[in-house]
Amino acid sequence: MLSRVKFIRDRVIKWAEDTWVKHDQLVFLFLSLVTVFFYWIHVIANFRANFPNIVLFAATITGILGVFLTLVIALQESPAFVRLKKYFPDKNKEIYGRLQKQLAYSMAVIVFSILAQSVVLPIPFFINSLALGVLSYLFWQMSIGSFYLIVVLISLVTRNFEIPQKTIMK
After folding, report:
1. Residues 58 and 106: beta-carbon distance below 8 Å
2. C-alpha count within 13 angstroms, C-beta hemisphere, residue 6
3. Where are the alpha helices (DSSP H) in the chain?
4. CA distance 122 to 96
5. Considering only CA atoms, which of 148, 109, 103, 106 is closest in space to residue 132?
């Protein structure tokens, strides 16, 4: 029974990861539309009250990504990265590109939240919904994208890759 549950859990995790890798932009769009829908049906009443928490979360993500960027730069000559460069040269560039994008998204969330919090005038419901859609898209992109990137980097750094040695056939 326990092995069956583990098998199902592993398949669900594999399906979620495959869906995420292939259709990440659609996942973000779906989550932001769900967020706006919750705002329209008044489940989310006042999203402006959460801006300080959003800024704090984005700043934390920015700090964590900065640490991982430093770690990736420091580990360029480790066996894992040497093997990565040798067998998958595009993945090394992809890791730097993803780090750069996630840092840009977290900075965009911070700037957008500060700008939206600074608006004093009453804003129509439709404009609020549009702003919430943009902010939630950036927020989901930053949070889930950063989580996925951190998981990839941790698995890359902590695995003990042995560089295969050439053997001479007799």
Report:
1. yes
2. 3
3. 2-22, 24-40, 51-74, 79-87, 89-118, 125-158
4. 41
5. 109
Q: How far apart are the first and last CA of the chain?
A: 49
pLDDT in tens, 62-81: 999 888 888 888 877 777 77
pTM of the model: 0.77
Identify the CA nearest to 104 among candidates 50, 150, 72, 58: 58
C-alpha to C-alpha distance for 103 and 146, rounded to whole angstroms: 9
pLDDT in tens, 82-120: 777 777 778 778 888 888 999 999 999 999 888 888 887
